[in-house]
Amino acid sequence: MDDGSIAWERFGWERLAEGVGRRRLPVWDATTALVAGAEGVLLYDTGATLREGAEIRAQAQAMLGGRRVTHIALSHPHFDHVLGTAAFAGAEVFGAVGVDALIVRERDALRTDAIRHGVAEQEAVEAVDVLVAPHHLVSGEWTLDLGGRQVLLANVGPGHSGHDLAVLVPGSPEVVLCGDLVEESGDPQAGPDAIPSRWPAALDRLLSLGGEDAVYVPGHGAVVDAAFVRAQRDELARRFGVS
Question: What pLDDT shows up at residue 2?
Answer without folding.
Answer: 56
